[in-house]
Amino acid sequence: MARFLIQRFIIMILMLAALSVIVFITIELPPGDFADRRALDLRSQGVLVTQQDVTSIRHQLGLDRPWYQRYVTWISNILLHGNFGISFGLHRPVSEVLGERVGLTVLLAIATIIFTYGLAIPIGIYSAIRQYSLGDYAATMIGYFGMATPSFMLALILLYFSVMVFNNSVGGLFSSQYSEAPWSWGKFVDLLRHLWVPALVLGLAGTAFEIRTMRATLLDEKNKLYVTAARAKGLPEWKLLLKYPVRVALNPIVSTIGWELTAIIAGAPLVSFVLALPDTGPLFLRALLDQDIYLSGAILLMYAALTILGTFLSDVLLALLDPRIRYGERI
Amino acid sequence: MSQITEALDAAPRPASPQSGITREEKIRYYTASQFQLMWWKFRKHRLALIGTLILGIFVFIAVFAEFLSPYTSTVRTPDYLFGRPQVLHFVDAEGKFHLRPFTYALTAAMDPKTFLLEVKEDTDEPWPVHFFVRGEPYKMWGVINADRHLFGVQEGHLHLLGTDQLGRDILSRLFHATRTSLTIGVVGLFISFFLGLIIGGISGFFGGGIDDVIQRFIEFIRSIPTLPLWMALAAALPKEWSPQRVYFTITILLGLLGWTHLARRVRGKLLSLREEDFVVAARIAGSTDARIIARHLLPSFLSYIIVDLSISFPYMILAETSLSFVGLGLRAPVISWGVLLQDAQNIQAIALYPWLFTPVAFVIVSVMAFSFVGDGMRDAADPYSR
């Protein structure tokens, strides 16, 4: 187990390193650099900036060095000082801007994961043991719709109905009296009350997929001889179901938590944007549109780190669930 | 006790011998070509047939967009901004039935309470709808000059899905957008097809160290949230690029999105096939690697690749729609479903002008149709399993 964990951990670190390079490349891609932006800023304030000044700013900031040196500076600033650079658009350090919002993004991702699996596992079990029942058909139909509709569009549809039918918007994460208030128990409860909408929207596609996986695996497992044997020995039906076939069927589901998390993180910015959530999503999109590269780069890096961490955790979970993986067998 | 009988009932039984099949049917089955077998199997999938029909309609719309739409994509009806969808009538105000559908002239007045434009139908003045009507001139496929539209009105205006903020006909724009969205999907698909085929082919055919490196690389790509990354790349495109150049680049970006799945499939199939006798025979007979791949390996798993392609097509469309929706993808004057949806971004638009929302229906219907067709093709890809 320890060996497995260490091995996975090393892979995680390597992937993070590779990702940071990719993020750095996207930061470097747009034409112009920090010095140009600074010059533009100063000029807009009425300061006369010559080409020579721009060159000297560039030299001062070390932007005229080769890219790998700049990468090392950038990444060591992040790792050693938590310094992600300055947001051009907001004129504040990126770490400060992010600090206010990262928590909500993480919370949203966790809520969605809980929502996805909390729904998918029971519904999947139900669909499998009551195959071709009305409920099974309903789950299949919702599944088709959920997989065909991208999450941001689902958010739009939900907004549409909430406005047209209930005359009340489902957007945002807080009621108006709490939005500016400091954290309190009441605010937390209010947050939970709003959180289910984005969690539902973000999780529906994943839920649909996991229901199908759960149903298919369980259908295969429940007719196997070991189930019959356990039943012949007189085990109560629900206990038998949960202890043997469901445990086997959980395996493929748990192993996809990493992908699920990746999909959630990928869909989250758009959903947050449509539902006007005060998390990193709208910030990310605005940073991209404004080419506020240090901000968008930091958020991108955070998204990637979240998914890689999630993959690592799902590996650990899988190892706990399945002894074959713990002992290094490949399945 | 009852549990045991239940368990026995649930246990799989040997399939009952097929009865009621005549000798002719058997002969027909065993002499059918592979393609025929696939078609027969595909035909059994009811939803897949419906999906195919819907996609057929979409392709038809995409090909003949200029002719089918009553207006061009840019012409404006200046006195009908944010106009409601007009209703087609067959029965007039006196209750008389007309075979030729018509729509009523509209009068606009400011609502004194809400300050919104209230539009009322003026039942005194019907605008009859004509087929093959002469209307805005256009260039069919950018080549042929024409001015005939499938349907339209000679007096007044006809906006079956309403108009946008500039008074442009949404139905016509939707038809033109269908063309863009479908072509961008197809081109993106071809790019991922070739990437997947080449990279997966190298990985599976040569195996060993190259295979390891490529597989780790694919795992790496699959574990990053691609959409945000692609957004970041799309945002890096210079603002001063022409819309056509952006269109081209976005297509390539989308193509880079979907190849990993295909590469895995190709590799898996190649790894299992390359030990087969017919491959060994071809090698002994002196065939080159390229020839073995092209002549012997590719045909034996082409159907699986086509299935994978049809499954990944919706992802292309959705990715394009997502990118354009937030303003990072295609830009006006290019119109796609995502570009049209930009107008429906905020809650005010949805509440006041819900008809701006119709592109959503197009996207969902097309993606669902594709999933159905993909399901049917997956069943049909291996026609020998029953």
Can you characterise this structure?
The complex is a heterodimer of chains A (331) and B (386). With 331 residues, chain A is mainly alpha-helical. Chain A has 15 helices and 2 strands. In chain A, strands 1-2 form a two-stranded antiparallel ribbon. Chain A is globular, with a radius of gyration of 25 Å. The mean pLDDT of chain A is 80. Chain B is built from 15 helices and 4 strands. In chain B, helix 6 packs antiparallel against helix 7 and helix 10 runs antiparallel to helix 12. Chain B is globular. Chains A and B meet through helix 1, helix 6, helix 7, helix 9 and helix 12 of A and helix 1, helix 8, helix 12, helix 14 and helix 15 of B.
Shape, per Cα inertia axes of chain A = globular
- Give the ordered list of helices and strands of chain B: HHHHHEEEEHHHHHHHHHH
Helix vs. strand class of chain B? alpha+beta
**Largest sheet geometry of chain A:** 2 strands, antiparallel
| Strand order in the sheet with the most strands of chain A | 1-2
Coarse shape of chain B: globular
Order of strands across the main sheet of chain B: 1-2-3-4
Report the structural category of chain A. Answer: mainly alpha
Helix percent of chain A reads: over 70%
Distance between the termini of chain A: 16 Å
Short description:
The complex is a heterodimer of chains A (331) and B (386). Chain A has helices spanning 2-28, 34-44, 51-61, 67-81, 94-129, 134-148, 151-164, 185-221, 225-232, 237-243, 245-255, 257-275, 280-289, 293-321, 323-326, and strands spanning 86-87, 92-93.
